[in-house]
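Predict the structure of GDP-mannose 4,6-dehydratase.
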Amino acid sequence: MKKALITGITGQDGSYLADLLLSKGYKVYGLKRRTATENYENVKHIKDEIDFLSGDLRDLTSLTEAVKIAKPDEVYNLAAQSYVGDSWKQPIYTGEVTGLGVTNMLEAIRLSNLNARFYQASSSEMFGKVVETPQTEKTPFYPRSPYGVAKVYGHWITVNYRESFNLFACSGILFNHESPRRGIEFVTRKVTDAVAKIKLGIQNELRLGNLDAKRDWGFAGDYVEAMWKMLQQDDPDDYVIATGETHTVKEWVQTAFNYVGLKWENYVIADPKFFRPAEVDLLIGNPQKAKGQLDWEPKVSFKNLIEMMVEEDLKRNSKK
Ligand code: GDP
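Done. Here is the predicted structure for GDP-mannose 4,6-dehydratase.
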């Protein structure tokens, strides 16, 4: 039986990856931070099948201990301070967790002599103020937020450990990927949740920032398959994972409101509070390398993704 250690197990990606690995017969260990209020929402359906280990990416001792207990064949580093907007409010914390935390995890693996394979959750935010369109594995980075800067560090330290110590370390440069399990602070889920609440009569407006930003949005459930596939190859490498399509925030908003038969212009209010000090205007990834080498393709379309999320939020909010 293969064993996997997932950091960030209670997040969107961690929970989908745990679903996938359990379905493949893996023993799954999940690293969890100690918090005053526990949040198992995304993993409540598989809670009994996961071995939770407490730890923090800032604390090497806890990672060493987790690796010692799990003896993993594969480590997926999905934990991070992952919200771009908050990374300006907590730039040092973001750097410690999202950046230096990767080195701590790599060190825990290297010092264990276990030969565990390593996946680093890199991000399209590293492309930031893009210097090339569409973005590929070879596009230079130009991050635009403390989060993006920290992810660039995490990416390069992963490449460096592969080249320095011959670790099987892969960096997946994932473009935005969403689902009903997405955190409410991200624009996608904020919109689908609000649309559901407006439709159900429990909210009457939606305050948003920049509607012109363009993103390449895919379904998180499709994207975790790519993570797993990277670690099953003969050689470690880096891959862009994206749909190859881009849409504005406004299109996301329109599609979500349309689905429930409402006009978005009647509910959306521009609020300067949600504009960012520096913006990423356009992201669109080229997933050709992943298609060719990993035989990976996204399955859920932009429209289907939005409808899936609105449906789920309608269900959730009508239960309340
Ligand atoms: P990101 O690509 O990781 O930053 O994902 P987000 O979902 O947080 O943001 C996507 C885009 O939506 C960014 O360009 C934001 O500026 C824009 N946006 C517009 N209004 C909002 C809002 O109210 N909340 C968030 N999170 N983003 C917003």
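The two ends are 41 Å apart (CA to CA).
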